[in-house]
UniProtKB/TrEMBL annotation:
GO terms for molecular function: DNA binding; DNA-binding transcription factor activity; pyridoxal phosphate binding; transaminase activity. In the C-terminal section; belongs to the class-I pyridoxal-phosphate-dependent aminotransferase family. PROSITE patterns: HTH_GNTR. Keywords: Aminotransferase, DNA-binding, Pyridoxal phosphate, Transcription, Transcription regulation, Transferase. InterPro entries: Aminotransferase_I/II_large, HTH_trans_reg/aminotransferase, PyrdxlP-dep_Trfase, PyrdxlP-dep_Trfase_major, Tscrpt_reg_HTH_GntR, WH-like_DNA-bd_sf, WH_DNA-bd_sf. Residues 12-80 form the HTH gntR-type domain. This is Aminotransferase class I/II-fold pyridoxal phosphate-dependent enzyme. Pfam families: Aminotran_1_2, GntR. It comes from the Bacteria.
Length: 440
């Protein structure tokens, strides 16, 4: 379908009406993935609206994951699932070094603990949180919260918690501040919820003050932050940066702060927080998937009392509670000496292997430094997509930084996120040499 024909099909006077028109044309099959939408000036002129209205409509479609903007190549409709997902790539013969997965050999074996936590069945109407897990979780998070006035909720992982937290606090098209580059699941959750993602740049000390100030000025109603081992960069908030961000947020006590401490027990860094003593809406999330395995789909959410009440309404028994068997297994493993020793060994392993690979890259004159986290964030002298294509010819599949970017005007990424902790020394040497060849 030509651009002129597409232009004639789209209707609307407001940004929401124009975006809805494009969405409905796609759903009816009138427009299909790969169709290039008309330039905003051309569309605005035909509809008799301000150019900014057309820009806002395309932005809504982009945030919903329905279109991608390719600069001079225009804005193109894509498949609904345009956001990249974590985990192994499907149907590839290449060696995947972009998975973001923990090492299965370093996930504690639950067999021995499981036999000890089996007990009587839990019935409808009983408390949705296991008392032992609730007590342990309170002790775990209390030192990292500025107030004793908090409650613990158990959810089916951190992504589930973020989705529920946003749903109980926001309406469709509300703005959410996200780190840029950003964790893939956060991008996906915000887009599926119909919220507007406002990018906040991340530097070596974490989320920037100027970036968060601009996001607050833009009216964000929630902020999602990763205080340590930020995915994909691995950076952690410095004490100075955290203090500056808290000072800024004192003027916005009702903006919901969601802190995703996904690497918690594996991290080498101290915990720094954006949540100040007077902040009214907050949630500190700690999932167990990085150290007990992704299949142990459980997260602890420590929130202000009002947010906890709203979450409780969405976790009613018999519908969406988290299995008590899973809760008992979690607390059993987190208090088992063998399991916790395995977790400590895993954290040391990830740090050692990532540092060693960064040193290999430096030997090839590629600037790389491990900060924290499961992965290694590497800056390249060429656009990452070009390097990735060269690596594919050498048998490797890597993730480029483009997948994690929110700012559509940032240009091509020069970063690559690598998951290398499971590579043998020989394979690590080969990958480093292949990256060196690819960038040249």
């Amino acid at each position: 379908m030509t651009g002129g024909v597409v232009n004639e099909q789209i209707t609307g006077r407001t940004a929401s009406e124009i975006a809805t028109s494009v969405r409905e044309l796609r759903e009816r099959g009138v427009l299909s993935p790969g169709t290039v939408l008309p330039p905003v000036r051309e569309l605005a002129a035909r509809l008799g609206v301000n150019r900014n209205t057309a820009v806002a409509a395309y932005r809504q479609l982009s945030q919903a994951g329905l279109v991608v903007t390719r600069g001079r190549a225009g804005t193109m409709l894509v498949e609904h699932d345009a956001v990249a997902q974590e985990g192994y790539a499907q149907d590839t013969v290449l060696r995947d070094v972009g998975t973001g997965n923990p090492d299965p050999a370093l996930i504690p074996d639950p067999s021995n603990v499981l036999s000890r936590v089996l007990g009587r069945p839990v019935l409808y109407g009983e408390p949705v949180i296991d008392p032992a897990l609730d007590a342990w979780a309170r002790e775990w998070v209390a030192p990292d919260l500025p107030t004793p006035e908090f409650r613990v909720t158990i959810t089916s992982g951190a992504v589930d918690a973020v989705e529920r937290l946003l749903a109980q606090a926001l309406m469709r098209d509300d703005a959410v501040a996200l780190e840029d580059p950003c964790f893939l699941a956060s991008i996906h959750t915000v887009r599926l919820g119909g919220y507007r993602a406002v990018p906040v740049p991340v530097d070596d000390e974490g989320m920037t003050v100027d970036g968060l100030r601009a996001a607050l000025d833009a009216g964000v109603r929630a902020v999602i932050s990763t205080p340590r081992a930020q995915n994909p960069t691995g950076v952690s908030l410095s004490p100075e940066r955290a203090a500056a961000l808290r000072a800024l947020l004192t003027e916005h006590p009702y903006v919901l702060i969601i802190e995703d401490d996904h690497f918690s027990m594996l991290s080498e860094r101290p915990y720094e927080s954006l949540i100040g003593p007077g902040h009214r809406r907050f949630a500190l999330l700690r999932s167990v998937s990085k150290f007990l395995g992704p299949d142990m789909c459980l997260a602890i959410a420590a929130t202000d009392p009002e947010t906890a009440e709203r979450l409780a309404m969405r976790l009613s028994p018999g519908t969406t509670w988290v299995s008590h068997l899973l809760q008992r297994l979690t607390i059993g493993m987190l208090t088992d000496e063998t399991s916790t020793a395995t977790i400590r060994a895993a954290g040391a392993h990830y740090a050692e292997r990532n540092r060693a690979f960064a040193a290999r890259l430096r030997d090839h004159d590629i600037d790389a430094e491990y900060v924290d986290g499961m992965n290694l964030w590497v800056r390249l002298p060429r656009p990452a997509r070009a390097v990735s294509e060269q690596l594919m010819r050498r048998g490797w599949l890597a993730r480029t930084g483009d997948e994690f970017l929110l700012d559509e005007d940032a240009g091509p990424s020069h970063h690559m996120r690598l998951t290398v902790h499971a590579l043998s020394d020989q394979d690590a040497d080969q990958l480093a040499a292949d990256i060196s060849a690819a960038v040249r």
